């Protein structure tokens, strides 16, 4: 996995195209995102997961994380963030999988609101596109839970 993140970082330095978001109903155009933009979102989402885990005294390594985000930049960034903290992304029903964390898009909140109780939840729509990483402090004893990419950045 570390090699995968190194390759992503390499593409980011060259500003290659990473993702084309589907056509937005508001703008009627697709949105292009570079690897640099993707890795910035991954870092921010990883920090949100780490902060949520620290605030609730939960461990991320091997944690089950639900992901309900429409296709596009935030879906890919969420998935990579999950992998960067060595959690496990779950693709089946939330009620059957004992997930501790859920990353979701606001458009799904009414559908999943009963499932959010007792879980660490991150709404990707609350993370502004211009957001910057805060550099969350991870205790040395928990660093083994993170991918080498996250520790290096």
TrEMBL record:
InterPro entries: ANL_N_sf. Gene3D superfamilies: N-terminal domain of ligase-like. SUPFAM superfamilies: Acetyl-CoA synthetase-like. It comes from the Eukaryota. This is AMP-dependent synthetase/ligase domain-containing protein. It comes from Exophiala spinifera.
